[in-house]
Amino acid sequence: MAQRLTMPVEEQKPTNQPQQEFTGSEILLRCLIEEGVEVVFGYPGGAVLPIYDSLYQGALKHLLARHEQGAVHAADGYARATGKPGVVIATSGPGATNLVTGMATAQMDSIPLVCITGNVAQNLIGTDAFQEADITGITMPITKHSYLVTDVKELPRVVKEAFHIASSGRPGPVLIDIPKDVSNARSTYRYPEQVHIRGYQPKTDPHPLQITRLHQAIAEAKKPLILAGGGVVTAGAEQELIAFAEKINAPVTTTLMGLGGFPGQHAHWVGMPGMHGTYAANHALLECDLLIGIGVRFDDRVTMGRLDKFATGAKIVHIDIDPAEIGKNVDTYIPIVGDVKKSLEEAVKEVPRARSDAWMGQVQQWYREKPLTFKDSEEMLKPQWVIRHLYETTGGDAVVTTDVGQHQMWVAQYFPFARPRSFITSGGLGTMGFGFPAAVGAQLAKPEATVISVTGDGGFQMTNQELAVVALTNIPVKVAVINNRCLGMVRQWQEVFHSKRYSEVDLADSPDFVKLAEAYGVKAWRATNKEEAKEAWKEALAHPGPAVVDFQVASEENVYPMVAPGSGLDEMIMGEGDE
Amino acid sequence: MRHIISVLVNDQPRVLARVANLLGRRNFNIESISVGESEEPGLSRMVIVTSGDERTMEQVQKQLHKLIDVIKVQDLNEHAAVERELLLVTVGASSGTRMEINGIIEPFRASVVDVGPNSLMVQATGERSKLDALLDLLRPYGIKEVARTGVTALPRGATKGVAVHVGN
Ligand SMILES: Cc1ncc(C[n+]2csc(CCOP(=O)(O)OP(=O)(O)O)c2C)c(N)n1
């Protein structure tokens, strides 16, 4: 499905001779193929007509989304599943602005994307021409870098740099805006072999002195704790992290973005910290004497913005590739700037073991004795039960994407991820509408994998138009709609903080998701109790193509534990129930 | 605390927008930004006057560094530096007050660069505080228009060998 299709251009390839001329759009395509791009996601329009004309010969696989937001989230899902940059193409003006949410989503979670937009011809730029939008200006705060290509001769260098910048250092989205006259202009072509950007040289090797200081701190620590984040996944450092945690004898908590970066089945793992974190993780954060943050950014959903109650007795070590993260949110005792994998490789060498046996016992006891709980029911389908069922029926061997809201937190809590890149979620921006198109991208990247899009009835309605794509191209994503007939997470906040004044959260009049899916040609099931749920899910998993299961769950369920905004991690509201 | 940050950037379209956008988005104060050519073709020097505590200043520098078009960031507070700004001010002047104004501006080494029927244009350079003082003294005569370039600055003795402090 995702193999490289290089046929027609391959035939012409020896023409990498300087004298032959190509159009800008042909050059762009050649550059993408040189970069090893397997698939691009996109949507055509006037300003990218030349690019789509070049795509016509089929040299590069293109997936036609039904909305540019779907395309960019799919490219993002592809990137998260593989670690390789996702590529998206959109036209000028509205096409480009439809990418904005997707770029911001990728920027917040440090996901490599190359976003290609057409623009009006250069003689029209600045005239409010038809479908003109200053997309480089609009996206300046939400891209790692951007280019407006003014000369076709620059295109190969720009593409080379864009891929390099997107995928190295702390990854992120890079925009290439190509005016139509540049796409049409002709030039000779040679893809640069090397890239040199004077102002961009990410530091990957950790400072040996700081590693020594880390070893000293570990030797002195009685209550060490590892807080691991998305940087572990980005760096592919899961093995190094396991070795490090075992050697120093420290418990590990992983942030939302870090889930899967350390196995959820490992004896050292104590769950996710923060607003909806476990008792063990939050109390370990409160009481540790050495906190080793690895590829994290001490986000306010973890610290609750209450630094007066966050690891106050601890020396904080911070390992990150981005120097600007260090000292941004918390004071750091030992800063280690470097690639997380390289840093851990260095750190694990001759690392002492902390005197932490009693502490390990304590934290593991918390994890055992204060587990996540919910009140199960035989009458109503409970969302937590559904998530656990998804885990049990797949043995955890799946790529799971989520949307944003309660179901997202339940997946984080009840689906213990064993491997990196198996959990795909919009952590930083919290973008509803992300999950389903991201699953499409992840499935294209991993054709053999079971890819499950767990989504809310609210979020699904933001981007469910991509059902057309999965139906037409037979992308076998399994959509699990956790249908509580309301905007659950907002409803929960209104219940708890606004004395049940439920304002504009009722989604009871949503369309029939089974009929909706069928209208697109996607098989679908509905489940209102455990028996139906088991049966429907079994059939959906067995079905070779895409499938939608509408799990009609209890609508008044809340996500617990919960730390209210403004409270410290010591003020957890625990859930009730026995499961 | 007030800091002068010197930033060497690629002379690329939009580079000023990138820097200004970053400073605004991250909620950093900007007192002034000035930009012009540097000693190296293709690079511009931006001088940013900003203020904040130590953590903020560290963040300003680190965040600026993340911009691809930024080559070098230097906090000039860590060096002895020469700081200058150019001021043009048009001040009300009658035949009776011209001499007085001349007398005021002279110790500032300012000069009259244009004369109108009822006004004078004065040019002055110096540190910001000096120009503020000059403006205060001219205020009673009626300030009609003011234009200031914002601060530009270089570290003293930065180039090898020449470390002599001359002038003020
Ligand atoms: C694009 C966007 N708009 C609004 C929000 C605010 N928001 C966060 S969670 C939520 C409710 C989501 O409801 P649903 O998709 O049904 O999921 P549930 O919480 O019920 O699991 C809303 C509106 C958001 N995160 N993203």
UniProtKB/TrEMBL annotation, chain A:
Catalyzed reactions per annotation: 2 pyruvate + H(+) = (2S)-2-acetolactate + CO2
GO cellular component: acetolactate synthase complex
Thiamine pyrophosphate enzyme central domain mapped to chain residues: 211-346
Domain Thiamine pyrophosphate enzyme N-terminal TPP-binding residues, every copy: 23-136
GO molecular function terms listed in the Swiss-Prot or TrEMBL record: acetolactate synthase activity; flavin adenine dinucleotide binding; magnesium ion binding; thiamine pyrophosphate binding
Cofactor: thiamine diphosphate; Mg(2+)
Keyword annotations of the record: Amino-acid biosynthesis, Branched-chain amino acid biosynthesis, FAD, Flavoprotein, Magnesium, Metal-binding, Thiamine pyrophosphate, Transferase
InterPro entries found in the cross-reference section: Acetolactate_synth_lsu, AHAS_TPP, DHS-like_NAD/FAD-binding_dom, THDP-binding, Thiamin_PyroP_enz_cen_dom, Thiamin_PyroP_enz_TPP-bd_dom, TPP-bd_CS, TPP_enz
Catalytic activity, EC: 2.2.1.6
Region (Disordered): 1-20
NCBIfam families: acolac_lg (TIGR00118)
Name of this protein: Acetolactate synthase
Organism whose genome encodes this protein: Melghirimyces thermohalophilus
Phylogenetic classification of the source organism: Bacteria, Bacillati, Bacillota, Bacilli, Bacillales
Automatic annotation (TrEMBL), chain B:
Cross-referenced InterPro entries: Acetalactate_synth_ssu, Acetolactate_synth/TF_NikR_C, Acetolactate_synth_ssu_C, ACT-like_dom_sf, ACT_dom, AHAS_ACT, AHAS_small-like_ACT
Keyword Flavoprotein assigned: no
Enzyme Commission number(s): 2.2.1.6
GO cellular component terms attached to this protein's record: cytosol
Chemical reaction(s) catalysed: 2 pyruvate + H(+) = (2S)-2-acetolactate + CO2
Pathway where this protein functions: Amino-acid biosynthesis; L-valine biosynthesis; L-valine from pyruvate: step 1/4; Amino-acid biosynthesis; L-isoleucine biosynthesis; L-isoleucine from 2-oxobutanoate: step 1/4
Gene Ontology molecular function: any one: acetolactate synthase activity
SUPFAM superfamilies: ACT-like
Keywords of this entry: Amino-acid biosynthesis, Branched-chain amino acid biosynthesis, Transferase
Pfam families noted in UniProt: ACT_AHAS_ss (PF22629), ALS_ss_C (PF10369)
UniProt domain ACT: residue ranges: 4-78
GO biological process: isoleucine biosynthetic process; L-valine biosynthetic process
Entry's family note: Belongs to the acetolactate synthase small subunit family.
Subunit structure and binding partners: Dimer of large and small chains.
General function of this protein: Catalyzes the conversion of 2 pyruvate molecules into acetolactate in the first common step of the biosynthetic pathway of the branched-amino acids such as leucine, isoleucine, and valine.
The name this protein goes by in its record: Acetolactate synthase small subunit
Originating organism: Melghirimyces thermohalophilus
